[in-house]
Amino acid sequence: WWRLRGRLAAWYPMLREIAARAETGSDAWCAAQLWLAAATNFRSEHAAMLEHSSALAGAAAGGGPSWALAEGLTGRAIALVNMGRTAEAIEEGHRALTAARESRYPAGEILALGVLAVAARGSDDLAQAVRLARQAAQITDGVPGAYVRWSGYVLTSTLVMAGELTAADEFCAAALAQCRDVGDVSCQRLLLPWTALLDLHAGRVPGPAADLGEG
Question: 50-55 — which CB contacts under 8 Å span 24+ positions?
Fold first, then answer.
């Protein structure tokens, strides 16, 4: 609920207290590290996200492929790409993708493919970015809606960057409708600037101003 409504960042201090009360390496501790990484991502504290994600991946590494390992490695990749360390992000993203697939964790596969798409954009390989983003968007069975909506955002933004505006418009409208249906303001915030850009290109006036105002 906190993530859906965009309030997760404010609960970072309490999440730290929860983590301190859990046994290091336990399922509860791993879950706390996952939410701490998510909260720091909302706060744009990339070094802190890298720290929490590294702790999660390190604790899970000895147990073979798992959701925790996939999430930890993906969190590292997200932090690294946001820090401009693209080559390292790609390496961690591939490790995360392998862990997600080997542990049959489709939500983790979406995240890994999505961050690899973003990293490919950073290295100016837009064809590869579109391919990866489309792969992520095709995974829907047995996956929580938040992951599916996020993949819609990644695909929309990647298609816009690649100049595929008609396809981007279609995917953006579908993703935004899904967000509004469940009140996912966090993902709406990500999508609305791209909606404004698409409206501008399509000549839908005063669409861009309304999109940005809502955002």
Answer: 50/75, 50/76, 50/79, 50/80, 50/83, 53/78, 53/79
Per residue in 18-72, pLDDT (tens digit) is 889 999 989 899 999 999 999 999 889 999 999 999 999 999 998 889 999 999 9
Check residue 63 and report its DSSP letter. G
Q: What pLDDT, on the 0 to 100 scale, is given for residue 130?
A: 98
87: Cβ–Cβ under 8 A, 6 or more apart, which residues? none
Give the number of other CB atoms < 10 A from CB of residue 151. 27
With contact defined as beta carbons under 8 Å apart, do 134 and 155 qualify? yes
Instruction: Report which of 196, 209, 138 is spatially closest to residue 188, judged by C-alpha positions.
Output: 196
* pTM, 2 dp: 0.91
The CA distance from 164 to 97, in Å, is 26
Tokens of 172: 């953006």
Residues 192/212, Cβ–Cβ less than 8 Å = yes
Place of tokens 């595929």: 164
- Are 137 and 151 spatial neighbours (Cβ–Cβ below 8 Å)? yes
Alpha-carbon span 50 to 76, nearest angstrom: 5
Alpha helix segments (H runs only) across the chain:
12-21, 27-42, 46-60, 67-82, 86-102, 106-122, 126-137, 145-161, 165-182, 185-202, 207-214
